[in-house]
Amino acid sequence: MELIFENYCDIIPDFCLFQEYLRKPIPTHIRINPLKIVPETLLTLLKEKGIHLESANEKYDTLYYAPGLNLSGNLLEYFFGHVHPQALTSCLTSLALSPGHNTYILDMCASPGGKTSHMSQLTDNTGLIVANELYPTRHFALGHTLDRLGVFNTVITGYQAQEFPMKHRFDYILADVPCSGEGMFRKTREGSVYRETRGKVSLPDLQKKIILRGFDLLKNQGEMIYSTCTFNPDENESVVNFLLKNRDADLLPIDVGFDYEPGVREWKDETYDKQIQRCARFYPHRINSVGFFMARIGKR
Amino acid sequence: MEERFGIPEKLFDDYLLFSRKKSWTLVRNGPHVISASRLKVAKAGLKAFKRVGHFVKPTTRMIQTFGPFATKAKISINEVQLSRLLAGEQFPVHLGPDQGYIILTLEDGRILGLGLLIKGTLRSQLPRKEVRQSMIGEG
Questions:
Q1: What is the pLDDT along chain B (139 residues), one digit of tens a residue?
Q2: Does the annotation mark A229 as catalytic?
Q3: Residue B58 is part of a domain; what is its CATH number?
Q4: Are A147 and B59 in contact (CB < 8 Å)?
Q5: Residue in chain A nearest B129 by alpha carbon
């Protein structure tokens, strides 16, 4: 059997099981949107239609697997804005950040809006979220998602994330950066290696610029999540380590109620800061979702 | 909204209305809105109204959010009727001499969006690209 992502065999535990899960279809996962419906009511309505949801974690009343439901976008409940199809690990970024009510939030790379709308849900449509997305062609999809889900506390901007204007300071920042997308492998069936080969700017270089700008945009005591959907340490720990070297940043513990592996301390010739172990690596064979990485960063 | 649907005006006390070319958006008000106004904003909040000819029409999403507070110009339809509307059919409803936009709900009370009542005949104003026949009875 051909190994997938073989270069990570030393850092991904239980590598055989990991391989097995990469070949399994990803289960459908939906997030219930309490901005428009009480989760219990929706569960009852879906049950009447013969759709049974399975809780992803007892800690959350909005996260559910939907076995047997391939196209949740074809539900009337999708039109109502009662549900949003979103990978479980993708939901965890907003939960790890847990923005408070009436706060000022920046989503640096917001389209297509799943995480933005989730943060709006967590803040109960209070405060303000700046949903930044560089590409105007993605603004329509972003705006549509936010409107469908009944989000009133956002403004959409179109800055380059790494050059977002410094005249603001935010309580919470989500930097879900462009990445090679290796963690999506089960979804896309494309074992992407690196976008660098496509003649684009080096992803780690871009990611380093974004993480620095994000940190600089934080208020004191503010918090930021840096996240990717890739396994590649060059885009994960290496980027976070770069921040630790260049700014007075703290890595904060992550507790989202799901198992994860700590960040790796060494990769290639580099040894990272001890704090890196506070990063979270979510693997498909541990959480049965797409692979994800996140770091919760605090500013003193 | 109050005059047509009986949706209390005070519900909008916490919101700001922004005008665009032929539409209006609604944003939750708060101290950060002033700060964000210094940014180059492509869109603020939820698209709430648009101009249609001489009329101002609330969007589907606006009605889905505030429709539950409506006390008039509201009608319940079943899934068969919804299917007919989506197929482009019109059918008579008995709401007296009233004409104009009307809130459509399903029998369980969930707000679909708007219909248009003209001379006792109801036609759909639901977004065709977003709500499809295949969604009805799905499961």
A1: 999 999 999 999 999 999 988 999 999 999 999 999 999 999 999 999 999 998 899 999 999 999 999 999 999 999 999 999 999 999 998 877 778 999 999 999 999 999 999 999 999 999 988 998 878 875 4
A2: yes
A3: 3.10.450.720
A4: yes
A5: A79
